[in-house]
Every structure is written in C-alpha cells, then in structure tokens.
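name: query_chain
kind: protein
chains: 1
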Amino acid sequence: ERPFQDDPHVQELSKENYPIGVQRADKTKWVWVIMYHSTWCGTCKQLIPKYKQAAKTLKGSVMVGAVNCGEHKAVCTKAGVTKYPIIKAFVPDDDDEVAAKTGRVFTGDRSSAAAISEWVLSLLPNYVLPIYSETNLQDMLNACKRSKAKSRERVSWSVCMLLFTDKQQTPMLYKSLSGQYRGKVAFGEVRMPRGAELANQLGVGGRKLPTLVVICNGDLSLKEVYSGEVKAEPLRKFVAGYEGGRKCSKTVKLDASTDFNSLTAAVLKELIKEHDVDCKYAMEKPDFVACLRKHVGAADAA
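structure:
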C-alpha cells in the first residue's frame, strides 16, 4: 500500500532520494516538510488526508515528502523517528543547530490541514529586503555589482529582483524564493503606494501589481520587467535562467572600464563567446583576462 503514490504534491522518499543532509543537484535551499508513517498505523491513516490537503496548499513554497518507515526503516532511524506518525520540517541554515540536523517536530492539531500548512509556512526564512528609499535601493544594488572586493552581502549571480506590491505581507512564494536562492540573488520588496516615487524612477509606475523588476549588475539601465505568470514554476524557471551570472554577463560592457579580474572564469568565457572574441589559446582565468584586455586595447586603438 502506497498512499502517496499518485499524489502530485507529495514525494515518496527512500534512501535513494532522501533530501536531508544531501547537497541538492541544483544547489537550491528548499524548506522540506516530511511525514514519517507506516501502512499498519491507524493514526497514520487518519492523518494522511490532512497531510495531502496541507501539501496542496504548500505547493511551490516548500518541498513536501513522506517516508514509509515500514519499507524504509533505516531512513527513519537515521532521522531519529521511533514512533509514527510524525511530521518534521527541515529549514536550511536553521539557527537552531539541533533542529538543523534532526528537524522541527509538528506538535499542533493533526486533525487540521490548515494548522499543518500554517506551521510550515511560519518556518520559512525571509531574506527579502524592504526597499523604502533611494538610499537603501542603492544598498541592494551594490550587492549585485560585480566587484573585486569580497563581500558577505554580494550575490554570486549579480542579479537583483525587486517586487512592487500593494500587499502588506511578503508573498509566501517570494519569501520562499529568497531562501532558495540566498547568496545568489538579492530579493527586494517595495510596498505601494509608499514606493510610488521608486516605481516611477524605475519606469513601472502605474503598472498592474504585483510587478517584478530584474536588474543586472546593479545597473538600473540594465533592467527587465518580468512578464510571465506570478506562479511557482514559471517564476522559479525565470530565476534559474540567471544561474551562475551568465545571463547578466551578457550585459557587461566590453571596454576599458570593466574590471575583468572581478568576473568568474565562467562569466569571462560567456563574455568571450557573446562578443566573438578570439581567445582560442586561453585555458584559465588569467588567460581569459589577458585576452579580453588585449581585445579592448586593440579596439580602443582602432
């Protein structure tokens, strides 16, 4: 008996795909909620419909899984599960060291799907920056600028995403994305109508809300307005398109003002490819830098 076999919102987990303590292939930092159960457990059978309802609510914001401890006892033992059913949430970079390893246990009302989903959502970390002035907008943009100096605040994909909204609470999906792509993308939020001046400055004043503006390399002249659906999968696919800083690298100016040493080898290769620069003998980062400098110098001389 596999109660979650055909459920599109719950992943059946085993030793082969158990996500806790394993680096994800896409390196995103999802919050996971996992139900540990057994097919012979009567209480488990009562909880399963509520867990499925909660999973549907949580779709797109967290990852939801279930482990049949009767079939995968080793997984449950490693997770410290000795009785069923039990629901645990695992939060990346959890401030509580014990909870980071063993998970946070749901102790609320098991008869309520809403209680389960609300508990999980309350654990979502929020790395969205409130943007309320030109000054702290600039602070956010600085985190996306390519700089030779190492900075704890700098994001590796060199991209800022700024949400204009009339909601008074940060949308769960946006909050979730800020955690999944922490350190890669900077996420900011402007609440309207207070942020009307900033909206006008970025050329999105009067647009239907919510509006998402994407800025490469901290340069407001290199902005793009997201035109897709404000739903989990389209948004996640859109954000993932900036992976490694390659998309933003295409906007880097190829002139003497560019600090090529501040760019990664992968970005330099994209820059060479994008501008069709002849660097066929370049193998490592210093070679790419030297080749691009030579190309810029020759262009300036011409």
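note: The mean pLDDT is 88.
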